[in-house]
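Hi all, long-time lurker, first post. I run a small reading group and we've been trying to get comfortable going from sequence to structure in the token notation. Rather than ask abstract questions, I figured I'd post a concrete chain and ask someone more experienced to write out its structure so we can walk through it together at our next meeting. Sequence below, copied exactly:
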Amino acid sequence: MIIETLKRHWWVPVIRGIAAIVFGIIAFAYPGLTIATLVLFFGAWVLIDGIFRIVGAIGGRASDPEWGFHLIIGIIGIIIGFLTFHAPAITALALIIYIAAWALMIGVSEVAFAIKLRREIKGEWFLILMGLASILFAVLVLWNPVPGALALIWLIACYAVVFGFLGIIFGFRLRSLPTLPAS
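-- Answer (accepted) --
Happy to help. Here is the structure in token form:
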């Protein structure tokens, strides 16, 4: 059942991936953006990701017993997105903690979900790589919380582009899964 729901909503990780890549490209193209502007771009990305996570959770509630967990992650993403819009002049340390906490939460959930699906689909390692990229990103951000603004922007951009490409690949892999016969 989970696989059929995922296959039906294959476009969700693709759109999430495209949003991540767009965010990453913008961050690479304009490294001189102020931290406040970066906060707004990050807030928009997290807000969009949270909305699509909620859509996926609600769409999968009939077949996924853990849909509530995914719903909570989406809600937290939306809250973090709104927090970034509400206080764009937050300190760099608070921004780093927001970003790292969100990436760590996403990474752990992606790895756990991939482990859950490992017997049902081939190619779950893309989801594991997405999760590990998120966890690695969170650790790197927390390791040195006072990096230069340019280094932080490029680190975030690299993470977003990698996460985005892996999400797009995962979505198209879901789309190409064979349809299971009705039982």
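A couple of things your group might point at:
The mean pLDDT is 83.
The helical segments are 2-8, 11-29, 35-59, 67-86, 92-117, 125-143, 149-175.
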